[in-house]
Automatic annotation (TrEMBL):
TM spans (from-to): 269-290, 351-369, 592-611, 623-647, 653-675, 705-724, 730-755, 805-824, 1066-1086, 1093-1113, 1161-1183, 1195-1218
Annotated SSD domain residues: 587-755
Keyword Lipid metabolism on entry: yes
NCBIfam families: 2A060601
Record's protein name: SSD domain-containing protein
Organism: Linnemannia schmuckeri
Length: 1289
């Protein structure tokens, strides 16, 4: 509506006084100063058409006194003494036309002056004939000759000056430009005047005015009048910053505008790291070469395997692997061993009682499941209740109402290169629109009941069919011309809801202004939103019916509408949540399958399979034991969920999908380690009872299990301090689940091991222990993986040359990771959270490809008293005394650097439009009835019956704001303005554009708060959304600091993107705190600060390399990947803690200790974590959900690969370089284990259990001899005597 006025003002101003009918003869022959080419009105071409001028190629006429006064008051002092080529009727018509343009243009005095000068000169200049030439004439309905076409020769200087003064003038009510209305959105002055001169009745010029580049007659001179600049030196013509860029102060550059530091096209960060690594590596290689030449005669062979020379070597070698041949002298470790020994012994002795108590407690805590709930509300998941964005959203919703809901349809051809703008597509679009408007739910709810209708009953439907008021009967054969006219000037073709439809909103896939080549129609149904759930439930009900219809439409199931050749994308407010739930239901099957694969592997891998004896195989199987371990994992999860559900914490999908994986990751390796250690003890010490063996197993491995569990629990618990609900709740659930899993493993699982060992000794079948069979005696052999580690891998990795290569390679990997970290993307593309076949994926793709308008952003201003002059100056822009730092001025300046601010469109500034509404020069706006001063006059009320606001006030209305209303007067006029509907006579009325933009206080005598609406640039990716959020808050902070007002920005997406403002610092804090906790616990349990630092360093390197892998694999940083990085800390500890403790507890040189640790627990770590996770991760690769493929499959694959490499390759190398020393000692009593079995027993052990039949290889013999040495107590003196020889093994 408001825009129609602006169109009329241009067209009416053009109609100013120039017009006539068709003829082919040139009417004007005399072209010299003092001559006219037309004058006065001679009728119209149609009965109700506009008046057209008479051809008049004669001298200019001296105006009478009344006409001269009218001319001077309208066109300026230049007509005070001159003749004129116009009549009084023409001048009055000119005044009427310019009054319509005044509300939009007069805010910029320079543009307004040039606008008046242009049409005054055209209509009344006494030298008309020097720049005008009538090219066609015709006859009016009165049979009089009239002008129907003429040429207007304008100089480049004048045209450019006129255009430049008006090109940036805003029409705030629509967040648009006046040029869209008076010049059809022209980008050049010729386009502007061409639009003005185009013949378009009833709203445009009644005859054609051409603006030739060169004079076709050779006698005309270009009109070269004086134009006023928007930054004119004469202050009475100077425009405000909002309407004139040269007036605006230069904003200081933001950090985002500073060019990044680069060296040869590479970032300074990456270049520096690469340079340092290269120089360091080169120096190290140089030193190694020099040293090698100097000491060429020395033995530089590292830790290498050699063939056994004598029994003494074997005895010492096995001494390194035997946990009974030494006792820890570190007090904490010794106490832990003592405690776990007694605990294991008791649990094994009272196995069934321990299991019953354990799972009784699990059942008790699991009663909390009765309060189980799943949180699916994205706001409650990702936004802290007391977060800034949540608080601001609440303020906005309570004062201005929540942001409206939308349902959108995007229609294009399946062949994306075809234009959608054709008659058949339009007719189908009319039918689709009619069907959607007629949709009715079971309760009878229709679109009319829920849609937004700001000024009347008409729904806000933004559709190309709106150019014909959504009425197919208005769509005629001349649709193409009508379409071009409407897209060129939307105010000419208002839809039912009377607001112009910008082509960018309803069309997509076109370049520039070539709207006929558009590839897509975009239809938006705007639906009311409310804080009242009853209202939103009704809207949700209609949206579900709408989605059903759209599904039928897409699949060509709607009778009468053939959509086979169409690509139709659609969405509603309810779509995303519905599709996310579908995604979760799909994902859960994949997750469960992944877990089942890991469960099955863990259960089978624990057993021993003697293929030559099936009976022995079904006895030695550990499937039941493995399943009991898995059940313990599930029990720990159940306990955690039950406890926190009882406390009122709802579970999230991340918890449901990730925590089982996490607990399995940190729990399965403990199962493998305990089982393998127990089997090793039974093999090496067959004379021990099951209870004793279980106690010693837990005493040996319990401290390292405690180390990893305690580190992970503390790390996760600290994560609970994060304000992001999804992350903090996950951290709490994870910490509890990991700790309960640890407690159950060192109690109930030890009991299960004891029961399984008893079953095996009694030759009972696994899974069916009630059946006892006669099975051949088990043949104890060393596993293939431990044997490979002992014979090949351990000696290789501890070779001195290999160590150097490993360190150099991993430092290089660290350098690469550090170089990649700055390239890590932030955000979560919502398309990834959807199933790959979801209709929403296609919708988001089409929205990105076709939609050319960004989301609206509202700057809410509080603590400004708009009833005072000072308060008005803090928020206005279009007056000479407005503050340079006012919200309106700052927004305009930021808009002019949209590539930085992401603010694209002019702001809607209510204070400017309100105060200009009071301007008495705009006689059609603020008028009160004389007989009832409390009521505004309507557009058709007689002028004599109305008083124009501020017409007789002293001081009067002026651009300096002096005399404008304050206090009660301000509130009186404001109330009337907010009730006035805009129309073509007064587009500045405030009800439609600002009805919900101003919130009064409870007394109604002050403006409590108000908002200033603008639009972001189109948001194409997560970077744009995050940058838009950051810059909007930067702008608000700047205005708040400079004006003292409280300003904050609000847009519907801000609440979800606040997390990304500090997610990098949050990630760093979380990971650092987690690693510090790992270091402290490691140092406390192991008693070695050096080893603790090495473990923390390796975990840190794993984290860096995983982040680098995220960059390479296209995984961005968000809440999900942050949770996975915290998980990475836990899994990294699992890769490191067991090997680190085993090496600390072993004796001998650093190489010997590490070798023993690798043989003892390295294979368990590899099979327990790496292989188990690989199988589970492999299943995740087949998920339909992109989010699982990206954030779980890719990240977990990186975590396992990087963690295994660092834990099994780098960590042993670093530990072998440490010289650890113990400083405290403690007598361990029963833990000083020794075996005093006779050599005969050892021979029987070797003959009965270690030999396979009558055949044995050399390796078997060597293994027998090594195991035989386990039973010997080597004196301390012998250790030093043989250390040099064993070191070569």
């Amino acid at each position: 509506m408001a825009k129609r006025t602006s169109l009329l003002l241009v067209l009416a101003a053009l109609a100013v006084g120039l017009l006539l009918l068709v003829s082919t003869t040139t009417a004007s022959n005399i072209h010299k100063d003092g001559y006219c080419v037309m004058r006065d009105n001679c009728g119209s071409k149609r009965t109700f058409g506009k008046q057209l001028p008479c051809p008049f190629n004669e001298p200019a006429v001296e105006p009478d006194r009344e006409l001269r006064e009218l001319l001077v008051s309208t066109c300026g002092a230049s007509f005070e003494h001159s003749k004129a080529c116009c009549s009084q009727d023409q001048v009055e018509a000119l005044i009427a036309s310019t009054k319509q343009a005044s509300p939009m243009i007069s805010a910029c005095p320079a543009c307004w002056a040039n606008f008046l000068n242009f049409f005054c000169t055209f209509t009344c200049s006494p030298n008309q004939s020097t720049f005008l030439n009538v090219t066609e004439t015709g006859n009016s309905t009165d049979k009089k000759a009239v002008v129907t076409k003429l040429d207007f020769l304008v100089s480049e200087q004048y045209g450019s000056g006129f255009f430049d003064s008006c090109k940036d003038v805003k029409f705030a009510a629509t967040n648009g430009y006046v040029m869209d209305l008076i010049g059809g959105g022209a980008k050049h002055w010729r386009d502007m005047v061409t639009f003005m001169g185009r013949e378009r009745e009833p709203l445009g010029s009644p005859f054609q005015i051409d603006f030739p580049v060169e004079d076709p007659t050779g006698v005309l001179k270009p009109f070269e009048g004086v134009t006023r600049q928007c930054n004119d030196t004469d202050v009475q013509y100077r425009c405000s910053c909002v309407d004139c860029l040269p007036v605006c102060p230069v904003l200081p550059p933001t950090p985002d505008e500073k060019l990044p530091c680069t060296v040869f096209g590479v970032s300074c960060w990456g270049f520096s790291l690469t340079f340092i690594y290269t120089v360091t590596l080169g120096a190290a290689i140089g030193m190694f070469v020099i040293r090698k030449r100097i000491s060429a005669a020395k033995d530089l062979i590292g830790f290498e395997p050699v063939r056994r020379q004598d029994e003494e070597d074997d005895e010492y070698s096995q001494h390194l692997l035997d946990p009974d041949q030494y006792a820890s002298r570190y007090v904490v470790s010794a106490l832990l061993q003592e405690w776990f020994y007694h605990q294991g012994y008791i649990c094994a002795k009272h196995a069934w009682r321990t299991i019953a108590i354990s799972f009784g407690l699990v059942a008790f805590f699991s009663f909390g499941w009765s309060r189980f709930g799943v949180e699916t509300d994205p706001v409650k998941l990702w936004v802290a209740p007391d977060s800034i964005s949540a608080t601001q959203k609440t303020i906005f919703d309570q004062n201005f109402g929540p942001f409206y809901r939308t349902a959108q349809v995007i229609v294009s051809y399946k062949n994306s290169q075809d234009t959608i703008v054709d008659e058949r597509s339009f007719r189908r679009l009319f039918m689709i629109n009619d069907k959607i408007k007629a949709l009715k739910t079971e309760r009878g709810v229709t679109l009319q009941d829920i849609c937004l209708h700001p000024t009347s009953d008409a729904c806000v439907i933004q559709s190309p069919t709106g150019y014909w008021e959504d009425d197919i009967s208005r769509f005629s054969g001349s649709w193409k011309n009508e379409f071009e006219a409407c897209t060129g000037n939307p105010a000419d073709c208002l839809p039912e809801f009377q607001q112009p439809l910008k082509p960018d909103i309803i069309l997509g896939g076109f370049d520039g202004e070539e709207y006929l080549t558009a590839k897509a129609f975009i239809i938006t149904y705007v639906i009311q939103n409310s804080v009242n759930e009853t209202v939103t439930d009704i809207a949700h009900e209609w949206e579900l019916r709408y989605l059903e219809f759209m599904d039928d439409l897409v699949h060509n199931r709607i009778e009468g509408i053939n959509t086979e050749d169409l690509r139709i994308s659609y969405s509603s407010e309810a779509s995303l949540e519905i599709e996310l739930n579908k995604s979760s239901n799909t994902d859960i099957r994949t997750v469960i399958l992944s877990y089942l694969v890991m469960f099955l592997y863990a259960s089978l891998a624990l057993g021993r399979f003697q293929l030559s004896s099936p009976r022995r195989m079904i006895v030695d199987s550990k499937f039941t034991l493995g399943m009991s371990g898995i059940f313990i994992v599930l029990a720990s999860i159940s306990t955690s969920v039950g406890l926190f559900s009882f406390l009122g914490y709802k579970i999230t999908l991340i918890i449901a999908e990730v925590i089982p994986f996490l607990v399995l990751a940190v729990g399965v390796d403990n199962i493998f380690i305990l089982c393998h250690e127990f089997e090793r003890r039974k093999m090496d010490h067959p004379e021990e009872s099951i209870e004793e063996c279980a106690g010693r197993t837990l005493g040996r491995m319990g401290p390292s299990i405690l180390l990893s569990a305690l580190s992970e629990t503390i790390a996760f618990a600290l994560g609970g301090m994060v304000t992001m609900p999804a992350v903090s709740v996950f951290a709490m659930y994870a910490a509890m689940a990991v700790w309960v899993d640890f407690l159950l493993q060192v109690t109930a699982f030890i009991s299960c091991i004891a029961l399984d060992a008893q079953r095996t000794e009694e030759d009972r079948i696994d899974c069916v222990p009630c059946i006892q069979i006669q099975a051949p005696q088990a043949i104890e052999t060393e596993g293939a993986l431990p044997a490979w580690v002992r014979k090949y891998y351990g000696p290789l990795i501890l070779n001195s040359s290999v160590k150097k290569i490993v360190i150099a390679a991993f430092l290089g990997l660290l350098t690469v990771g550090l170089c990649l970290i700055p390239s890590l993307e932030i955000g979560l593309d919502q398309r990834l959270a959807l199933p790959s076949d979801s209709y929403m994926v296609q919708f988001f793709n089409d929205l990105d490809g076709y939609f050319r308008v960004g989301p609206p952003v509202y700057f809410v201003v509080q603590d400004v008293d708009a009833t005072t002059r000072h308060g008005q100056q803090q928020i206005c822009a279009r007056f000479s005394t407005c503050s340079d730092s006012s919200i309106a001025n700052v927004l305009e300046q930021e808009r002019k650097r949209a590539h930085v601010s992401f603010i694209e469109q002019p702001a809607s500034v209510w204070i400017d439009d309100f105060l200009h509404w009071l301007n008495p020069a705009i006689e059609t706006c603020c008028r009160f009835r004389k007989n009832d001063p409390t009521k505004l006059c309507g557009p058709w009320d007689d002028e004599d019956e109305c008083n124009i606001c501020y017409a007789d006030k002293e001081p009067g209305w002026n651009i300096s704001m002096n005399g404008l209303p304050e206090g009660e007067e301000f509130m009186k006029y404001l109330g009337e303005w907010l009730k006035a509907n805009p129309d073509e006579f007064c587009p500045l009325a405030g009800k439609a554009a600002y009805g919900d933009a101003i919130k009064l206080n409870s007394a109604g005598d002050k403006v409590k708060m108000s908002h200033f609406r603008t639009y972001h640039t189109p948001m194409r990716n997560q970077h744009d959304f995050i940058a838009g959020y950051k810059n909007a808050h930067r702008i608000a902070k700047q205005v708040s600091e400079e004006t003292g007002a409280t300003v904050f920005p609000y847009s519907v997406f801000y609440i979800f993107f606040e997390q990304y403002v500090d997610i990098i610092s949050l990630t760093i804090r979380l990971l650092i705190v987690a690693m510090i906790s790992v270091g402290l616990v490691t140092a406390a349990v192991l008693g070695s600060i050096k080893v603790a630092l090495v473990v923390v360093g390796v975990v840190g390197m794993i984290m860096v390399d995983v982040v680098g892998a995220m960059v390479v694999m296209g995984v961005s940083l968000n809440a999900i990947s942050l949770v996975n990085l915290v998980i990475c800390v836990g899994i990294s500890v699992e890769f490191c803690s067991h090997i680190a403790r085993a090496s600390v507890e072993a004796e001998g040189s650093p190489d010997e200790r590490v070798f023993g640790a690798l043989v003892e627990v390295g294979s368990s770590v590899f099979s327990g974590i790496t292989l188990t996770k690989f199988l589970g991760i492999f299943v995740l690769a087949f998920t339909r959900s992109k989010i699982f493929e990206v954030y779980y499959f890719r990240m977990y694959l990186a975590i396992v690969v990087v963690g295994a490499l660092h834990g099994l390759v780098l960590l042993p190398v670093l530990l072998s370089l440490l010289e650890t020393e113990r400083t405290s000692s403690l007598s361990l009593g029963s833990l000083v284990w020794s075996n005093r079995s006779s050599s005969a027993n050892r021979r029987r052990l070797r003959e009965g259990r270690l030999l396979q039949g009558n055949e044995s290889s050399d390796d078997d013999v060597e293994a027998d001899d090594v195991r035989e040495a386990v039973a010997q107590d080597l004196p301390r003196s012998q250790n030093s005597a043989t250390s040099s020889r064993v070191g070569r093994r």
